[in-house]
Amino acid sequence: RILILDEPTAVLSDQESERLLTTVRSIAKSGTAVVLVTHKLGEVIAHADRVTVMRGGKAVATADPRAVSVPELTQMIVGSNIHEVPAPSQNIGEPLLTVADLSGARSDGHVALSGASFMVRSGEIYGIAGVGGNGQTELAEILMGVARPLSGRIRLAGADDISAEGPQQRRAQGLAFIPADRHTWALAGGLSVAENFAVSGVIAGKYGSAIRVDTGAIRTAAKKAVESFDVQGVRSSGQKAGLLSGGNAQKLVIAREFSGTPRVVLAHSPSRGLDVRASAAVHDRLRAARDSGAGVLLISEDLDEILLLADRVGV
Asked: How far is it, in rounded angstroms, from Cα 295 to Cα 266?
């Protein structure tokens, strides 16, 4: 009689989302009451009969989705207008990351990536678009160094072939990673917010030696990052990172990855699960990295995100 869906399309492609919501629409027409909790405003306008906006724990507005626009809904949600105006890069330079004839397999041995070749230049966001399951995850894992390629080369400007190097060596050469699966590849849930934020700096000697780590400096830096990147739900820097919601966990990852000066940023579905304000903040950070001269590789199944951010697109 009542169907409650909480972010049911968060990890689906556009086509999959449309099929699911069309099915939900037919269920509603049969007499079932459906409650759809979502941050995707296009879904609200296309499929909902009524929309109620929550902000700060309160219901602040109820409207007919056909009578409001996405900017108007955005203003209701965040209390102000957020206008993301695509601005092309003005300073595209030499290649920083070159991928040549890269192939890779899934854990079951199935070849999911075959002969991929592209380059990412300084001062640009290079977007990779496509329906999920077409090699994007395997590409990201190989570039991060957590999976080995079957063949091909990965070159970073100023370095030799880094295809055989692990994540630590790649990070030391200026690669920053924002993985889609943040809890598996980007955070240790049992460690504190401060420890998760500072781990890269500890390895690099930023907070003293391995024998004598400056825990006070770590707590101070983590507190500043939490405030700067608006990581909500952090009562103290000693709180376990595993207690953060998905969106706030992503903000913590991004705060850490941008705490240095990365040369190349790999961002795989960086705004997945984030609300419109948080997504806009993430997009601003990626553009800022690009404008400072870094190369950004954006892998996303959200075509709107690709078209909004990318200076070039590979499919």
From this structure: 9
